[in-house]
Specification:
Number of strands: 27
Strand content: 35-45%
Number of helices: 5
Shape: elongated
Strand order of the largest sheet: 1-9-8-3-4-5
Radius of gyration: 55 Å
Helix content: 10-25%
Structural class: alpha+beta
């Protein structure tokens, strides 16, 4: 620890002598440079950020220096180095470079307690100083995921918690499912007992679905101390769910005398094994021709009696599911006797119909044209001897007027 310096009470006689001598040298240096001090002489430092456990380099420079001493002090104002002379017994502190223009030191295996403001002093008269703040980053611990109990039943609610401690400043936690980030998660930050670092936790809350089975849920911790290499914890999900069932037929047009294979595809976790085949609500009626092999039902030498509804049922410890397939066996001879439509015959029939229709229209038109106008009835006497209707009317009893009254009109 940088602050674990040797106190006067515990220091050995040589250490006491060194410290006293150092104070005298500092006083002498300030007195010597009382007149020489110039406005151009001023120490220059920079703030330093280092990861816990790393090495911090503190550098103090002076552009113009007339043999004036430089000194580094820690936040407790304990002298670390005066020129090239080490003042504090701490093996982690080493001299990097000492000259009239520069005093650089290094602090290895830096701890959080080393954080603070360090001072570089230039012993002019008056003494000029420059401050450098050392920031120590706390590295977050490897995250852990808790709350998962395998297996999880489909539909159950899951709460996964990711936690990491020791970060300074507080780390950031992100959730991913199969490399796709999950948003809207709870986030909690708590200060650790040392009151320097933080414990960060995040909870992922969701309902288990069969699509999540085998998915990789990862908790990713990002922090500036990790040099763009995040720490990741992973959890593979195991979801148990009821089977899903589907029947696939080897033939889309089964015919008599052929064979057909019905395959029952079932998915579930645990995997359902075996499947149960039934026909029309009962057992398979012809075991010799209807053979079950695993998930396949093979029916040989199909005939009309095989028509019906075939059911495949799959069961696992979570539940049961089934599906149906309606089999219709076709007669190949009926199909062979059926030919395509006779277009010539159809055309002939249509032609005959059209011809008859046209003839009827023509005859009707001629009839109407021939009988257009008026005609006389056959009521007059003498009609039998008359050559035509007009003569009969003229020869009939009564006047022409009466004849006109006997006329009827046809339009």
């Amino acid at each position: 620890m940088l602050f674990c310096s040797v106190l006067w009470e515990t220091a050995s006689e040589p250490a006491r002598d060194f410290t006293a001598k150092l104070h005298l040298q500092q006083k002498a240096a300030a007195t010597k440079n009382k007149v020489k001090g110039s406005q151009g002489q001023f120490p220059l430092t920079q703030n330093v950020t280092v990861v816990e456990g790393g090495t911090a380099n503190l550098t103090c420079r002076v552009d113009q220096n007339d043999n004036t001493s430089l000194q580094w002090s820690n936040p407790a104002q304990q002298t670390l180095y005066f020129d090239d002379k080490k003042a504090l017994r701490d093996n982690r502190i080493e001299l990097v470079r000492a000259s009239w223009h520069e005093l650089s030191i290094s602090v290895s295996d830096v701890s959080l307690s080393d954080e603070g403001q360090y001072t570089c002093s230039l012993f002019t008269m008056p003494v000029k100083t420059s401050k450098a703040f050392l920031t120590v980053l706390g590295v977050p611990e490897k995250p852990q995921i808790s709350g998962f109990t395998s297996p999880v039943m489909e539909g159950e609610r899951m709460q996964l918690t990711c936690k990491t401690s020791g970060s300074k400043p507080a780390a950031d936690i992100r959730w991913f499912k199969n490399d796709k980030e999950i948003k809207d998660v709870k986030y909690l930050k708590e200060e650790d007992a040392n009151r320097r670092t933080f414990t960060v936790s995040s909870t992922l809350d969701f309902r288990a679905d069969r699509s999540d089975d085998g998915a990789v849920v990862s908790c990713r911790v990002d922090h500036e101390s990790l040099n763009s290499t995040p720490q990741i914890a992973r959890q593979v999900l195991e979801i148990h769910y009821t089977p899903s069932v589907k029947i696939i037929s080897s033939s889309s047009w089964p015919e008599e005398g052929q064979s057909i294979v019905l395959t029952c595809e079932s998915k579930g976790k645990p995997l359902p094994e075996p499947v149960l085949w039934t026909k029309d609500g009962g057992e398979l009626p012809d075991p010799e021709r209807m053979v079950v092999n695993g998930r396949d039902l093979r029916i040989s030498f199909l005939n009309k009696t095989d028509n019906g509804t075939y059911r495949c049922e799959a069961t696992n410890p979570i539940g049961q599911n089934s599906t149906e397939y309606v089999l219709i066996v076709h007669d190949p001879n009926a199909l062979a006797g059926q030919t395509g439509p006779d277009h010539a015959l159809i055309g002939g029939i249509v032609a005959v119909v059209v011809f008859v229709t046209l003839c009827s229209i023509i005859l009707l038109g001629r009839y109407l044209a021939r009988h257009k106008g008026t005609y006389l009835t056959n009521e007059a006497k003498g009609a039998e001897d008359a050559p035509d209707a007009d003569t009969a009317i003229i020869n009939a009893e009564g006047s022409q007027v009466n004849a006109e009254e006997k006329k009827e009109y046809f339009i």
